Every structure is written in structure tokens, then in C-alpha cells.
Model the fold of this input.
Amino acid sequence: MNRKLVLIVIGLWMGANWAAAAFAADAGGGKASYEKSCVGCHGADGKGNEKMATILGEKTLSIVGQDTTKKSDEQLLKVIAEGAGKMPASKLTKAEQKQVLVYTRTLAK
Done:
């Protein structure tokens, strides 16, 4: 019985490491896409580019505040894909959009 428990623990540990590696890869790919397509308005830290907010007549372009972070992944992917307000629709692939979402979630931490 102890052997089964050890195998289960090892399996869970390996799975967690693989998931962390996959998350890191998505976040890394997302960073490149974010820097290419999003940083101009949302800033490198996600707190928003104040000058661009003024130009667009927006209060803020932050994506790290509670109003954004409390939204579901599906809600945010829709905004990334279709745009919202003055934000244009994305020209990124679906995979890149998901990577950007993963990366922007890391900015809010």
C-alpha cells in the first residue's frame, strides 16, 4: 500500500512540474506577443500608458486592476479577440491570444 501512495505522490509531483513548465512557456510566448501588440496602450507592467489613455480619452488603460483581474478567462479572451471600446480586435492567432492572457495574468500578481 505504501508503494501505491509513493507512486501517486510522484505522479502528482511530475504533473505539477509539467503544468508549471507549460504555464511558463505560454507566459513566455505571451510576453513577446504582448510587447508587440499591447504594450503601447497597456504599458510594460500592465498598469496602462497614461499618455495613450489621455489621447484616447480613457480614465485608465490598466489591465492589472480588480475590474480586469476578476473577469473570467473567457471574458478576457473575448475582449482580446474582438476588442472593446476603443481597443481594436486582435490580429493575433487564437493560440497567441491565449498566451497573452496567461502572460497578462502574471502581471497582476
